[in-house]
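Researcher: Next entry: Sulfonate transport system ATP-binding protein (Pseudonocardia endophytica).
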Amino acid sequence: MATDAGELTTTAVRARGLTRGFDGHAVLDDVDLDIAPGEFVVLLGRSGSGKSTLLRALAELDDGVDGSGDLWVPDSRAVIFQDSRLLPWARALDNVVIGLDPGPASLERGRTALSEVELGGRERAWPNELSGGEAQRVALARALVREPALLLADEPFGALDALTRIRMHVLLRELYDRHRPAVLLVTHDVDEAVALADRVLVLEAGRVVTDRRIDVDRPRDDRDPDVLAHRD
Ligand code: ADP
Ligand code: MG
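Model: Predicted structure:
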């Protein structure tokens, strides 16, 4: 596959023939994937289908894992996991600005990010004083304050109750509309996929078996029969 610099600037993710395996067993099997800048993609699949393995590959967090293929991802990436992974010894605002240049400008950006996730009043809260949903909102602020070209999220709302999850869907779509990163969000929840995505990929046994655009203006149960068929 020929590439040149011009092409790379119009692509947020490009993977060709991506293969990953454990103990001689292929978990990702020859995956090709393109994500355009600013595209919101949900990767849907059953437990064990290889979603996290693919996300970790795109995050380049899989050093030492057997694999092959070609991968281009932007340097400016942010990753969110199911658990917020906040530093317990740092207050909410310090968790958001961690790793940024120290100084008032970064603190101001962090404050803005916290207010964008509706936690403007919780800058000085310790992680153990936050609910699960609040902690994930801090993790979202920590990701977005970096203005990543690519946001990777592995079942970010999987540990939250149903009502909090729906609230997070609305918030995430608002933040996405404001910041427009390319997004790859992993879930096993078909309803979450059709609620969030402009495009849904379905992974089965390490292969992308479905790749569909979703029309978010259609009624939810009428969005895409191919994707909805994956409901359990
Ligand atoms: P998903 O996120 O879709 O649930 P994973 O990507 O976590 O799936 O895992 C896919 C398969 O790869 C599973 O069979 C899992 O047991 C295996 N696997 C994942 N990570 C490892 C690892 N570090 N060592 C051995 N096997 C692994
Ligand atoms: Mg997983």
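Model: Note for the record: Strands lie at 13-22, 25-35, 40-44, 66-72, 77-80, 150-154, 182-187, 199-204, 207-213.
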